Amino acid sequence: MAEEKTILVTGGCGFIGSNFIHYMVGKYPNYRIINLDKLTYCGNLDNLCELVDYPHYSFVKGDIADSEKVRGIFQDERVDVIVNFAAESHVDRSIEDPDLFLRTNILGTQVLLEGAREMEIPLFVQISTDEVYGSLGSSGLFTETTPLRPNSPYAASKAAADLMVRAYTKTYGIDAIITRCSNNYGPYQFPEKLIPLMISNAMEDKELPIYGDGSNVRDWIYVEDHCRALDVILHHGVSGEIYNIGGACERTNLDVVKTILEIVGNPESLIQFDKDRPGHDRRYAMDFSKLQGELDWQPKVTFEEGIKQTVTWYIDNQDWWQRIKTGEYMEYYERMYGNR
Ligand code: NAD
Ligand code: TYD
To answer: Is the residue at 79 inside a domain?
Structure first.
């Protein structure tokens, strides 16, 4: 059995964080997991309801930018690894209102880094994104040495956080790793992001809003493959390094949406081409050969399998997303897409 560890997961009530906690609890039942989450609009305790009585899991409601709260956790618990998922994560919201992105994504990361420095936490893992690299043309891949050229306020805030992590490793000698992953999809993703929005709209016979002509390309990875990569990295990754994580699965948005409609069994006439997103990145694609070569990881789930499993999950869990598609979500939807 793996040596016992205590992991502080931030943002564990969100999409990837909750999948990661489920994955880790399943694989390392003797690890202790502390989940620090502010429960913003996209943080959902339902995602982890099976764990309420699980003795090695605890939930702390709080803000990563609250230094007292963060210090309190480190004083109460001997944390071995911090995995920082907590973030404002939606590009469209960052275009509407960037302020909160700076506070959570940059300042929040710095508060955690400061805690890691003060309490000499053995490892800090920063969950970053391919979006820090900016946009690709029709060829080429992002490598770990591609210059940072973020184009949205979200991407800029994530790039700034990455630079702060780097600064803390160089200046204070903390042990930290940065991971940069491509677009995830799977269970528990908030239905404002492309795939869950399109699945849930298709199930409700609503229009499917595609920005521009739908030819923008993303490199899709099934969330469990991302969790497996993080598992390998937090156990065997080298401190100070950056690791790209990708799905080797480039698809245009239009292809993705057509595939969803086919699985749900609804007509392509539901597709509605909308005005383009400002600063819309053309294409993302990851070179993850470093992770593959050094740590023997590669994605396992094909898009065809993963998207079917994801649609099935949204069919089987309609209560989960229908509860979300009310209140604040509807106001946001109306502002973004008009009252469709
Ligand atoms: P999400 O929006 O689903 O979840 C974010 C979580 O963070 C929520 O539970 C929210 O309540 C919590 N949170 C927000 N602000 C907080 C704060 N100030 N203090 C504590 N908790 C706070 O996001 P996600 O899609 O799961 O993304 C998780 C991380 O992975 C983010 O850092 C994101 O940048 C990164 N990432 C996401 C993708 C993707 O495709 N979704 C790809 C690459 C990297
Ligand atoms: P999104 O899921 O927001 O992820 P990101 O912008 O971080 O890559 O969007 C994925 C792609 O889908 C992106 O090219 C924008 C596009 N998109 C639409 O065409 N319509 C939508 O309603 C949304 C939310 C996204």
So the answer is: yes
